[in-house]
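Much of what follows relies on a compact textual record of a protein's fold. A complete example follows; check for yourself that the lines match position by position.
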Amino acid sequence: MREDAIQLFGFLTGDEQEWFRLLTTVQGVGAKVALAILSVATPGDLVLSISAGDKAALTRAAGVGARLAERIVTELKGKVGKMPGGGAAPIGKVAGVAAASIENDALQALAGLGFRRVEAWPVLSRILVEHEGAPLDKIIRLALKDLAR
């Protein structure tokens, strides 16, 4: 509700409504931009994109530029674990600080090879849990094997 208008928004699921509320807490994200983001990404996609720091996935939405995507990722990174649509904990929380460093290096390597962070992050997450303490080259090799399928 505003002084000049009463607006009503509808959502297919409760998850989308919760994400809408969370997105509108970010400075620069109003109802129109939040709806645009939800029209190009499901709640599960948002969990993965924000957890992986994939700003490019957010910029596909109308009205979201690089700076706003950066702000969304920065402000929501700590809140994404409690949101519906995924619930996968960030790797740094699961396997420690060393895993977070290996994860970032592996994500950058895979991005350099043309893989999107959104598709690479779940694969890396699983591999880091299964092969805890493995060196970076082995993690990248295993991820490439899995992503090639």
